[in-house]
Amino acid sequence: MVAIGTYEILKFFHVLLAIVAVGFNATYAVWLARAAREPEHEAFALRGVKFLDDRIANPAYALLLVTGLSMVWVGDLELAQFWLLTALVLYAGAVGLGLFVYTPTLRAQISALESSGAGSPEFRALAKRGTTVGIVLGVDVIVIVFLMVSKPML
After folding, report:
1. pTM (two decimals)
2. CA atoms within a 13 Å half-sphere pointing along the CA-CB vector of 13
């Protein structure tokens, strides 16, 4: 018989949450690229991205922190390990960038689209900023996933 302990259960949920959070984030580029080709659907796509980000991806990221720290507490892990500490610093950076830059930019982008249209300089500037911040966040998250999987020791 195979025994499954608390650590393994936490790890299962941690990985599942990572798949959900990163997977949903990965779809944003597809939503936005399609919307750019079909401007009549741009408002729907932006509101869709905002909904997915606010209601699914971000809560999954918050629970990732909870399950990850729980695994440290239950398992034989030290927060001071390079891979774990680095991932936590990158996570904090991603949370800050997401909360204070990406989400307000997306909110402003939706507002600018509704008030000025997709061709307005304000909307285009916000779209460019959203894309740039999205790329930075994507790279950040990919590095975190790499650290979690490879656990490099330095």
Report:
1. 0.92
2. 17
